[in-house]
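Archive entry. Fields below.
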Amino acid sequence: DAGITQSPRYKITETGRQVTLMCHQTWSHSYMFWYRQDLGHGLRLIYYSAAADITDKGEVPDGYVVSRSKTENFPLTLESATRSQTSVYFCASSEPTSGIPYNEQFFGPGTRLTVL
Amino acid sequence: GQQVMQIPQYQHVQEGEDFTTYCNSSTTLSNIQWYKQRPGGHPVFLIQLVKSGEVKKQKRLTFQFGEAKKNSSLHITATQTTDVGTYFCAESGGSYIPTFGRGTSLIVHP
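PREDICTED_STRUCTURE:
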C-alpha cells in the first residue's frame, strides 16, 4: 500500500528549464494539493484540486502549472524554472467527510528541487 | 483560509521539560488541525479540534481549542528526544483548504 508518492525525490535543474514533479495517490481521495516549504515560511499552497479536471490557485501559483486528468495523479510543472523556485515541494491528498469540516491531509515524502 | 500566527518560532528545551506552542487568530476559527514534521520528513496529521473549549489528549500531548475559537495550543509534557520536529497548526475556515501557520521548531537537548 503505497499511499501517496512523489517523484523524483531530488532534482537539480537549471534556470529556464521546464520541470515536472509527479504525485500519485492510491486512496482515490478527491482533494489533492501542492505546497512549497521554505525556511521561515512554513507550508504555502501553490495549487489544489477538488476532483479530476478541477484545479484552483492557492497562495503562490505564479510560475507553476497543474493538471489532473485522473483522480490519482496531480503533476506540478514549472514552465521555466527560476532560482526562487528552489524549495521542497510536498504533495498532499484528503477526502472530506460530509457533515464536519474533516480534512486531514496526507502528505507525500516531498521533492527537493534545486534550480541553479 | 484565514491567517494563523504561531508562536514561538523556535523552542529549545532540556529533555524532561514541558513544551507549549500557540496558534492565534484575530478571527473565529471553524476548526484547527495540528501536524508534526520530523527533520527531513513530511508533515503528519496529529489531531483536529472543532468545538469551542475542546481538549484532547494523545499520551503526553494535550491539545486545546480556545473558548472563543480564536486560539489553540499544543502542550507536551516531559519532552523526549523523539518529540523533536516542527509543529504546525492549520485552519480551513470551513472549507477543505487549510492555511498553515509557520510552525514551531522544537529542539530537545538530552
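CURATOR_NOTE: Chain A touches chain B at residues 31, 33, 35, 40-45, 48, 50, 58-59, 90, 92, 94, 96, 100-110 (CB under 8 Å).
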